Amino acid sequence: MARDGIDLYEKLLEREEATLSLWGLKSRDSKGRKIPEEPDRVRTAFQRDRDRIIHCKAFRRLKHKTQVFLAPEGDHFRTRLTHTLETTQIARGIGRALGLNEDLTEAIGLGHDLGHTPFGHAGEKILNDWCLKHGIESGFQHHIQSVRVVEVLENDGAGLNLTFETVEGILKHTKGPGDYSVVLEPDDTLHWEGRVVKISDRIAYVNHDLQDAVEAGLVKNEDIPQAFIKILGATNRERISSMVIDIISTTMKEGRLALSPEMDSAINNLKDYLFERVYYRSEIRSHDDAIRRCLEGLLDIFSNEKEIYERYLKAWEDDKTVRTRHLVDYVAGMTDRYAISVAQELMVPSPWPFMR
């Protein structure tokens, strides 16, 4: 609670008026929240969004969700949380240089993957297939689930009541399954802060996934094509710096968020290289069948066995559609290790205890 007499809200708004560019979205211009709230005395609306996301349970669970490598033994491979933090910092750097609202950019970056499943994109595909098979016509897409997390699931069902701008940025950070493009397509319906997070997400993953692949021994530094190194740089730091500087300088030159054609081509070629040498490698895909058995097994048990459903979730819903939605939310929110633990408990027999 702020002490009596302290009220920085108007000063923060005045600072935005003085420092943000024409591209930046000022807090004063926010469309607000679904449930109106009085302004905070020491934070803008977007700063409050950021804080609510950082303190929510779904954010904490990201540290135990797969980015690319499933439950790696090494301590330094990325998880969904470290990917989120790297994306956010890249976005803030670009946003600061372009005079955008850093607080809104940060809130979107921190919240963009809150709805991701355990086991990364393999888990997302499995949940999507299961939803389509069981009557959820929209399937499962992590960006839509991220919005569901902040609007419906968090805070014991009350949601976080974020601003419309933060929710919009989270929703539109990807088009859905298969959207791996790093091309900056025009999107006049999304504010600049959201567009910056969208490209920063791609910049983050093409760089840290390559670095992790080298760390894992899937790619050797000397195997990285010289064409990439010439344009992007030889190290993770150099590559990120090259991309960020290019997008800032090109945007300032053209007056629209853009990469130079050379950089755009280089990033997309690097992405294609990752698919060929990393994402589709047998070592990475070797767990796919086991992941499918794990998640589909959990979903089937929960949906068909009332006692187990109530033990883990909540009171049994007679409405199958409602029950299906609840269990998809539950499984999607699991961390990798929790999903494995519950699957072992429910699907792997335990030795009979010795009775004395």
Defining key terms:
356 residues, mainly alpha, Hypothetical protein af1432, 2 domains, 17 helices, 59% helix
Average pLDDT rating: 92
Order of helices and strands: HHHHHHHHHHHHHHHHH
Distance between the termini: 58 Å
Q: Quick one: how many beta strands?
A: 0
The number of domains:
2
- Taken from the alpha-carbon principal axes, the silhouette is globular
Known CATH architecture of the largest domain? Orthogonal Bundle
Question: Which structural class is indicated by helix and strand composition?
Answer: mainly alpha
CATH topology of the largest domain: Hypothetical protein af1432
The total count of helices amounts to 17
* Relative helix content: 55-70%
Largest sheet: none
- CATH first level of the largest domain: Mainly Alpha
Overview of this structure, please?
It is a single chain. It contains 17 helices and no strands. It is mainly alpha-helical. The mean pLDDT is 92. The protein has 2 domains: 44-284, Hypothetical protein af1432 (Orthogonal Bundle), CATH 1.10.3210; 288-340, no CATH class. The chain is 59% helix and 0% strand.
Structure summarized in a few sentences:
The protein is mostly helical. Helices cover 59% and strands 0% of the residues.
Chart the SSEs and their pairings.
Elements: H1 9-19, H2 45-54, H3 57-61, H4 80-97, H5 102-111, H6 120-133, H7 142-153, H8 164-171, H9 192-216, H10 226-232, H11 236-254, H12 261-279, H13 282-285, H14 288-304, H15 306-312, H16 320-332, H17 336-347
Helix pairs in contact: 2-5, 4-5, 4-9, 4-11, 5-8, 5-9, 6-14, 8-9, 9-11, 9-12, 10-12, 14-15, 14-16, 14-17
